[in-house]
Design a protein that fits this description.
60s Ribosomal Protein L30, Chain: A; globular; Endoribonuclease; two-stranded antiparallel ribbon; 3 helices; Endoribo_LPSP/chorism_mut-like; alpha+beta; RutC-like_sf
Length: 155
């Protein structure tokens, strides 16, 4: 990575939350070789969950904001897995986004772009990744978005 991620976060005005604790019987991440698999992170702010159904309660733009919150939580988990040193992050490999949406809502890609755009904004080329953006009839706690990720770390 050609720039310091923490410096870039500060320049852009982003603050990583503390890495959220798992809500059930799973671990927040698993490192296999140089690939870090991060469990799904749900849309939330310090004030609580970002809830609602896209196409009914929320617009695609509001969904993209929810997806950005997921991306920040993903980076928090990466930071935790790296012992606090984000310089060990080499690239984002893949994001899978789940969008709590009505059957006729078709802008899941626009919603998940909130996370994808943030990764590129912060990490540059290392933030470009493979991706899936799918509809879900419901998500835990009624949240709007959940995103999981695979990241490559220094080996």
């Amino acid at each position: 990575m050609t720039h310091d991620i923490d410096t870039r976060l500060t320049e852009l005005g982003y603050v990583l939350p503390d890495a959220p604790a798992p809500a059930a019987n799973y671990v927040p991440y698993v490192l296999v070789g140089d690939l870090l698999h991060v469990s799904g992170q749900i849309s939330q702010t310090p004030d609580g969950f970002i809830t609602g159904k896209l196409g009914q309660d929320l617009s695609a733009e509001q969904g993209a904001e929810a997806a950005r919150s997921c991306a920040l939580s993903l980076l928090s988990q990466v930071r935790a897995a790296c012992g606090g040193d984000l310089k060990k992050l080499r690239r984002v490999v893949k994001l899978t986004g789940f969008v709590n949406s009505t059957p006729d809502f078709t802008d899941q890609p626009k919603v998940v772009n909130g996370a994808s755009d943030l990764m590129v904004e912060i990490l540059g080329e290392a933030g470009r990744h493979a991706r899936s953006a799918v509809s879900a009839g419901s998500l835990p706690f009624g949240v709007a978005v959940e995103i999981e990720g695979i990241f490559q770390l220094e080996s």
